Amino acid sequence: METKFWQVSAVNPDLNIIKKAATIIREGGLVAFPTETVYGLGADGFNPEAVKNIFVAKGRPNDNPLIIHIAEDKEIFRLARQADKDPRVSQLISRFWPGPLTLVLAKQKTVPDEVTAGLDTVAIRMPQHPVALALIKACGAPLAAPSANRSGYPSPTTGQHVYADLGGRIEAILESGPTGVGVESTVLDLSTDAPVILRPGGVTREALVTVLGNVYLDPGLSDPRQTPKAPGMKYKHYSPHAEVILVQGARARVAAKIKELTFQYSAQGKKVGLLLTRETWSNLGAGTESLPAFYRRDLGSAWRLEEIAQVIYSELRNCDLHGVEVILTETYQTEGIGAALMNRLLKSAGQQVIKA
Ligand code: TXA
Ligand code: MG
């Protein structure tokens, strides 16, 4: 099929285009759209056939449930039977919605099994992007939407990324430029007494703690012997075609190790890409130009991890576009957004870290 590619203002979306996109979704088609985190691939959440097509288009494993996206608070009651009885829900949504927080709650029977992969819980979020909100409202139905990438590849942060992955496989793409957060929403499980982060993301654990007191991290995120509770977290993920190598240690040692590895891989005939912080570049000092690297990027300062999170997926994709075979990059503090950034980088590196 031919995929329509429609440019839409992120600030003031053209309602004619939104209506055309909504018609496609109401007729059972798939439309990719921007959110504040990454681009999503939307289908009518109450149309099981359309939802099934999401899995086909992405090549997504069938046991991996989808997030339902809503545009009004009250929609949550139609989807989650727990929502009206649990005071944590209203506290969290008044503080963080619209925004990058997904809540996992006991589901209502009406939510199709295709959305939840047969689980008795449902993941729900209200995105903070004018195009996403306008689209959901125009559809008059909640949208089931995973990230709009081919399964396993880094999530898309522009419409062009979506086109590269899903062009010819979906009906339309709404393109509104780069997304703001750059990594996905935080998935928070409230289906048990203790709130557990199943996937770190745009809303930090520190921010959740201010509302909930204790917030736990799913042990399956860091312990390879335990299965993560979010099915999507158990797969190899966020991986470019190039091998990703993470180097960890004190700044000067990291710089020295990166230099050593660049020469080593390039001597093996491999094309090296360097995705480094400003601080590491300045530690490398004079002579960086003579490093035998094929692609090099300053990701920004290690003191501003929000900015690195914004560009990381796009830079992993750029390495592939430039034919890079080995990406050398570094580790970060796991405070704030750093938890999400490191979770994604560790997965894209197959959990391997080289100590400098
Ligand atoms: O920022 C985001 O969350 C983006 C944008 C498009 O909204 N969406 C996104 O969806 O990242 P996806 O499908 O790529 O990731 C959803 C994650 C997966 O790890 C999935 O296993 C988990 O949420 N999930 C969904 N429903 C769940 C449930 N009922 N219980 C546990 N985990 C669930
Ligand atoms: Mg995804």
From the structure above, extract its key features.
16 strands, alpha/beta, 356 residues, binds threonylcarbamoyladenylate, binds magnesium ion, eleven-stranded mixed β-sheet, globular
Report what the structure shows.
The structure is a single chain. Strands 1-8-2-3-7-4-6-5-9-10-11 form an eleven-stranded mixed β-sheet, with helices on both faces. A hairpin with a 6-residue loop joins strand 2 (31-33) and strand 3. It has twelve helices and 16 strands. It is of the alpha/beta class. Magnesium ion binds at residues 146-147, 155.
Structure summarized in a few sentences:
The protein has 356 residues and is an alpha/beta fold.
Helix-strand blueprint:
Blueprint: E1 4-7, H1 15-26, E2 31-33, E3 40-44, H2 48-58, E4 67-69, H3 75-79, H4 87-96, E5 101-106, H5 113-116, E6 121-125, H6 130-139, E7 143-144, H7 159-166, E8 172-175, E9 186-189, E10 196-199, H8 205-212, E11 216-217, E12 243-248, H9 251-267, E13 272-276, H10 278-284, E14 295-298, H11 305-321, E15 326-330, H12 338-348, E16 353-355
Parallel strand pairs: 1-8, 2-8, 4-6, 5-9, 10-11, 12-15, 12-16, 13-14, 13-15
Antiparallel strand pairs: 2-3, 3-7, 4-7, 5-6, 9-10
Helix pairs in contact: 1-6, 9-10
The structure holds threonylcarbamoyladenylate and magnesium ion.
Threonylcarbamoyladenylate is lined by residues 35, 37-38, 40, 64-67, 100, 102, 104, 116, 119, 121-123, 127, 145-147, 184-185, 187, 198-199, 229-233.
